[in-house]
Design goal:
By secondary structure, this protein is of the alpha/beta class. The chain has seven helices and 13 strands.
Length: about 260
C-alpha cells in the first residue's frame, strides 16, 4: 500500500531519497537495506522520481513528471515537503550498518541550534577544521556543497538550487554560490550514517556488484552494466588523488584565508 501524503508541519525532518525512473532497478535493494539497517526510522520517507511509483507501505513517492533536469526535479520534491529540515540521500547509496535514530535526531537538533544550512553525516570530503566538537567547512571549500548524505535546512537548499544543473554541476557551482553565506556548512567528524556507493554514471562498481550479487536483496544486474576492470582501477586511482587533493587544499585554505575562520561556525 502506498502511504498517503501526510502533514509534517510539526515534524523537524523528513528523509528524501532523490532518484529518477532510469534508476528504478536500485529502489528495491536500496529500501530493503534501508529497512534492515534503519527499521525504526521515525521520519516520513519520500522517494523522488519521474513517473514510476514504488509500492512500499513506508515510503511515499513524489512524481515530478518527465523533466530531465535534476535540479528542477529536486526543487519540485522539496516544494512538496513541509518539514523544516530534510535528510537528503541518493538511491545509489546503500546503507551497510545500523543507523541510530537518536544520533540522527541529535544532529538535526545540533544543526538547528547553530542555525546552520547543511550538516554532512558522512565526512567525504571531511571537515576543514573543528569548532566546538564539530567539523566546519571552509567558505572556499571545493565541495562545501556535496550530495553525500546530509541534513539540510530545506528553505536554504531551495535557495541554493539553480537552473538545469546535474548533480555534479550542483556540487561544483552550488559550492561557489554558497559563498554568499560565510557560515552554516558543517560536517560530522565520524560517520553517523554508513553506506556504500554502488553505481556511478549508470554503471555498477565492480566491488559493489561482487558484494551484493549473492545477497538476494533484489539487485537486477541485467538492468545496467558493471564497470570494466581497467575503468574500475582508474576510478580507484582518481578517488585516491581526489582525497589527497582535498586534504592538501583544506590545509592550504585554513592557512591562506584564516580571516574566513572568524566568520564561520
Amino acid at each position: 500500500m502506498q502511504r498517503q501524503q501526510i502533514d509534517e508541519s510539526d515534524l523537524s525532518c523528513s528523509v528524501l531519497v532523490v532518484s529518477c525512473d532510469k534508476y528504478r532497478d536500485l529502489w528495491t535493494p536500496f529500501f530493503t537495506l534501508f529497512a534492515r539497517y534503519w527499521p525504526d526510522c521515525p521520519m516520513p520517507v519520500y522517494l523522488g522520481t519521474n513517473c514510476a511509483r514504488l509500492e512500499h507501505e513506508n515510503v511515499t513517492t513524489l512524481n515530478a513528471g518527465n523533466d530531465e533536469a535534476w535540479s528542477r526535479r529536486l526543487r519540485f520534491f522539496l516544494q512538496n515537503l513541509n518539514s523544516e529540515y530534510v535528510l537528503l540521500l541518493l538511491e545509489d547509496f546503500f546503507l551497510d550498518r545500523p543507523v541510530s535514530s537518536a544520533e540522527v535526531d541529535a544532529q538535526v537538533r545540533l544543526l538547528r541550534s547553530c542555525d546552520g544550512i547543511a550538516l554532512r553525516l558522512f565526512p567525504n570530503p571531511p571537515a576543514d577544521y573543528r569548532r566546538g566538537g564539530m567539523g566546519v567547512l571552509h567558505t572556499r571549500a571545493a565541495f562545501r556543497v556535496s550530495l553525500q548524505a546530509a541534513i539540510w535546512n530545506r528553505s536554504r537548499l531551495l535557495e541554493l538550487l539553480a537552473g538545469e544543473e546535474s548533480p555534479w554541476d550542483f556540487e561544483i557551482f552550488g559550492s561557489q554560490r554558497s559563498r554568499v553565506w560565510p557560515s552554516g556548512f558543517y560536517c560530522v567528524l565520524k560517520p553517523v550514517i554508513h553506506y556504500r556507493h554502488v553505481v556511478e554514471r549508470g554503471e555498477w562498481f565492480r566491488s559493489a556488484a561482487r558484494f551484493y550479487e549473492p545477497l538476494n536483496i533484489g539487485c537486477n544486474f541485467a538492468a545496467r552494466p558493471v564497470m570494466g576492470l581497467f575503468k574500475s582501477g582508474l576510478k580507484k586511482l582518481a578517488n585516491w588523488c581526489r582525497r589527497a587533493y582535498n586534504k592538501a587544499r583544506s590545509r592550504w585554505l585554513c592557512i591562506r584565508y584564516p580571516e574566513r575562520l572568524s566568520n564561520a561556525g
